[in-house]
Specification:
By secondary structure, this protein is of the alpha/beta class. Helices cover 46% and strands 16% of the residues. The strands form two sheets. The protein has an eight-stranded parallel sheet, sandwiched between helices. A two-stranded antiparallel sheet has the order 7-8.
Length: 379
């Protein structure tokens, strides 16, 4: 990453903007140096032991054009995340790294079922991550900063523990207002062949207990995946969700430009303001979009869909929330008002009480106003 990569078309450094991050995987955001140290502690074999070369290996391995291949890199990160000490450290460092990038609210998602190979229980794993997040928040506050971070618990769609993880989420949901507490449930993993409908009991239980749900859908699989996430899972947000563009037909009209015709599913997602947790760089790596210029993000934004900007996996994509904003702004000529709207959309979709969302929105507005003031002073 170079300094100029963070600069917006108007010269503003994107890192100065307050950001809300709804889709960031804990096991996809480790520091390469931390992986090397943790691997040495547990004698875990790595493809590279130099942090810079390891970071390059993750990035190149993830640039596969396939979601399945992209996900295979997680065997390394998950492999070193099997102890209380490791989970606590990784969660703390994630908070510190996000705050350094200007993130003011984040939901870190991860799958506890994947972190039990060295004897941890599900509750012990969740406790460790909660403690690490709280430590990270304390670190930031001790330096005069501010950030809020919660956990989203994932069940793996190719596994058979979704009912158990849903029960864990419901049990831990009472802590959703505690720093690092659990704020919702997610279904992650390879989409094709593993529809949300196969985990209907887990989703029904979350609905009965009023626990909010987001689902990975509409990335590697198409409209059926999105429909199942909405109807079978009761998802309030869609993880990625960019294949909703498959339900939009564009028609050229001689005198009036291009006309967009939305199908029933696209109309529902738009009109119900179902938030799309879009991660542009990750979408390019998995082949969900052929290029940034051809990515449906701008089309969906212009048509009034609720689009949010996310990192997905900062390590695999060699990215940050600020870089994602800068790339979009430079590609589609977005100004500060556009970037602020993305944060407001994410804020409104956050799994927080409405009063907390309102306070977060005020913080976002104040932060953007502070960035705008130098421009106004020059006028």
């Amino acid at each position: 990453m170079n300094e100029e990569d963070f600069i917006l078309p108007d010269g503003v450094d994107a890192r100065a903007l307050p950001k809300v991050l709804l889709h960031d995987h804990l096991d996809g955001g480790l520091r390469p140096s931390t992986i090397v140290e943790l691997a040495a502690d547990v004698d875990f074999e790595l493809p590279e032991t130099d942090p810079e070369l390891l970071a390059k290996w993750f990035r190149e391995s993830a640039d596969s054009g396939s979601l399945t291949s992209y996900l295979s890199t997680f065997s390394v990160t998950v492999g070193v995340m099997q102890t209380v000490q490791a989970l606590r450290r990784i969660a703390r460092e994630a908070v510190v790294d996000l705050a350094a990038d200007g993130v003011v609210y984040a939901e870190l998602r991860w799958a506890p079922e994947q972190h039990l190979s060295r004897g941890l229980t599900l509750d012990e794993a969740v406790d460790a991550v909660e403690q690490g997040i709280a430590q990270g928040i304390d670190d930031i506050e001790s330096r005069g900063g501010w950030i809020r971070v919660q956990q989203l618990l994932c069940a793996m769609r190719q596994g058979h523990r979704s009912d158990e993880i849903a029960e864990l989420t419901v049990t831990r949901y009472d802590s959703h207002l505690v720093p690092g507490g659990v704020c919702g449930f997610d279904l992650a993993g390879p989409e094709a062949g593993f529809p949300p409908s196969a985990h209907a009991e887990a989703f029904d239980y979350c609905a009965e207990e009023f626990v909010p749900v987001t689902v990975h859908a509409g990335e590697a699989a198409g409209l059926d995946s999105i429909e199942s996430a909405l109807l079978d899972a009761g998802a309030l947000r869609l993880g990625h969700g960019i294949r909703i563009a498959d339900d939009i037909e564009l028609h050229d009209e001689d005198d009036e430009g291009t006309f967009a015709q939305l199908g029933e599913l696209a109309e529902w997602v738009k009109n119900r303001r179902v938030a799309l947790e879009i991660a542009p760089t990750s979408n390019l790596q998995t082949g969900a979009a052929p290029s940034l210029a051809a990515h449906p993000f701008n089309l969906l934004y212009e048509l009034g869909f609720t689009v949010t900007v996310n990192t997905d996996n900062r390590l695999m994509s060699s990215t940050t929330a600020s870089l994602e904003l800068a790339r979009l702004a430079n590609e589609f000529d977005y100004d500060l008002d556009d970037l602020e709207q993305f944060q407001f959309a994410a804020c409104e979709a956050a799994f927080l009480p409405v009063e907390d969302r309102e306070r977060l929105a005020d913080r976002i507005a104040d932060g953007f106003d502070a960035v705008r003031q130098p421009d106004e002073a020059r006028r």
